[in-house]
Description:
The complex is a heterodimer. By secondary structure, chain A is mainly α. Helices cover 80% and strands 0% of the residues of chain A.
Amino acid sequence: MTHTAVAEHHATPTWEGITTLKFAWWLFLASEVMFFAGLIAAYIVLRAGSPTWPIVAEALNVPLVAGNTFILIVSSVTMVQAYAGIETGDQNKLRNMLIATAALGAIFLSIQGYEWSALLREGTTAQSSLFGATFYTLTGFHGLHVTGGVVGLIFVILKALRGGYTQAAHDGVELMGLYWHFVDVVWIILFTIVYLI
Amino acid sequence: MTTHSTQTQRPYMRVFGFLVLLTAVEVVVAFVLSASTAKVPLLVALAIAKAALVALYYMHLRFEGRLLRAIAVFPFMLSILVALPPAFDVLSRR
Lengths: 197, 94
């Protein structure tokens, strides 16, 4: 089967107008929800069962991470604007908004790196306490997902710069957007559970 | 599938405004409210509201058919089922 034939096969709607690729992508995202649900459930049980737990407002830099949360929310807006751009055939808007999204994702990761390095300097490591172990596991896995998203965005940007997406065919942008917003949703939940409660 | 006209009418910036507002409310609630019984449910409700806004409008679930909505909602319901037994276990030990 040629690449074109494979692409056409993937783009074939199943029912309700959904392509097989989009259907599979949503199933993947559903499995990712369960992955993070398991981690969050473990965090809640370990935290509730632990005799000691630091006051998070003192142990973590909440204002810094609130700002980082704002950055990730803005990146969701730029991602959805990229999608809106290609839906109207606006190639410039698509490229600029995709680049902005990747840049914001990189800034989010840089700030998370700064936060981690500050905590490590203070002696909070994955081995130092249950708090440290759960904190680095939850934020680390999310950070890995953001990293994967930024790498994926770079591929989408490169294709967009070559004019690879059109108003009629832009599945890659839509799937990239779904993944990016999913990562945002996960962070919205993690920010509340890890930093605010 | 949605039409071009409905795509352009989607309230992306209004949703962004709500997300920023809810995040600010979350931080205020976290720092201003003392550790009361209402604090945790309020913060969880605010987080769920924000997540729902992103899923409904940015992931376009509001405009999708029943199949995709079911695929999206099912793992969340399953997650709650996963979390309930340990939650009851933790509460019963207090």
